[in-house]
Design brief:
79 residues; alpha+beta; three-stranded antiparallel sheet; 2 helices; 46% helix; 11% strand; rod-shaped
Length: 79
């Protein structure tokens, strides 16, 4: 996949803006070199909008939206 992705360092709270995967990896490499001696800090991750830092997937929002639409469309028939 091309993106969008962003790098997140939990030790510094560092995140770059959403960008292509290669650019996110370049940002991560620069951050590691500058702040971590080139090492990977514990908990670092690459985040995509489908799975954000809090661990919530977009699927749960889609399910809620679907249920609301169905209730609005067919709710009057259920009562």
């Amino acid at each position: 996949m091309l993106g969008p992705y962003r790098y997140h360092c939990p030790q510094h709270g560092t995140s770059d803006p959403y960008t292509f995967k290669r650019a996110a990896h370049d940002f991560a490499e620069e951050h590691r070199d500058e702040f971590h001696g080139g090492m990977h800090p514990p908990g670092e991750c690459f985040v995509s909008p489908e799975f954000d830092i809090r661990g919530n997937s977009g699927a749960s929002s889609a399910v809620i939206a679907f249920v609301l639409v169905m209730l609005l469309a067919f709710g009057s028939r259920l009562i």
